[in-house]
Design goal:
Layout lengths: L18 H8 L11 H10 L4 H21 L17 H19 L4 H7 L17 E4 L2 E4 L4 E6 L1 H5 L9 E6 L1 H5 L4 H9 L6 H10 L1 H7 L3 H6 L1
Antiparallel strand pairs: 1-2, 3-4
Helix pairs in contact: 2-3
Length: 230
């Protein structure tokens, strides 16, 4: 082998099926751990002239997601920063969450929606009531609900579904991605509220962050001419 030959490879520690090969490789190569890096996202998005408030939201959301994944699962299943490097707007961030992050969480947690809802900042109790309180929750005719959740939960009633009371079954919760978030039909301010709602922010900080996003909302909002043309 020539002395100037360098072999570089990458592997994901979450892929447990490669464990035996991993041992063999570790005897022959030097390993360097490369964990998700918020600074990489911040630098690339800033270099791409993305609005500063959108950059802050993207990096904070990324860090919060990984913090919760580490707590509920393990450090090896954290999200990679590559998912977020092409974000240029709130709409771009929405697409990353809906098309990539939420499906990945479904795989990670084997469809355990209560845990997925926790990661996404909208946990529910067994009756489908919000576990978070304060400014994120609003009163409804049925009690209380999240004002702008990524995941919604509804009681799947036994009698309403089966038509009778069965001893072997009981009410269950039905979880789903908020329809307007999934289809991109949220207004820009509501989208900003939904994304900010994932973070753990006090009411005054939440309002400040929403105000900082105002320029990005104005740029992203469709004009009357574009709406009529569409």
């Amino acid at each position: 082998m020539p002395p100037n030959l360098h072999v570089l490879g990458t592997m994901n520690t979450a892929d447990r099926s490669i464990a035996l090969m991993d041992v063999a490789l570790r005897r022959r190569f030097t390993f360097e751990e490369l964990m998700p890096q918020t600074d990489v996202i911040r630098k690339i998005l800033s270099d791409n002239n993305v609005d500063a408030a959108v950059v802050d939201l993207t990096t904070d959301l990324f860090a919060t997601l990984n913090h919760r994944i580490r707590f509920l699962y393990d450090r090896d299943h954290q999200l990679g920063h590559a998912y977020f490097l092409d974000v240029a707007s709130l709409e771009g961030l929405r697409k990353v969450m809906v098309d990539r992050v939420i499906p990945l969480l479904q795989e990670y947690f084997y469809g355990a929606w209560p845990k997925i809802a926790i990661v996404l900042g909208c946990p529910y109790d067994e009756a489908g009531r919000p576990l978070r309180k304060g400014h994120l929750v609003e009163k409804t005719g049925a009690g209380q609900a999240y004002a702008a959740p990524m995941i919604q939960a509804e009681v799947f009633g036994e009698e309403a579904t089966l038509g009778f009371d069965h001893d072997d079954y009981e009410n269950r919760l039905d979880f789903y991605v908020s329809p307007n978030l999934r289809t991109g039909r949220l207004g820009q301010e509501q989208l900003a509220r939904t994304l900010l709602g994932l973070l753990d922010l006090q009411a005054d900080v939440f309002a400040q962050r929403l105000a900082l996003l105002a320029p990005a909302l104005a740029v992203a909002a469709p004009t009357a001419e574009s709406v009529s043309a569409g």
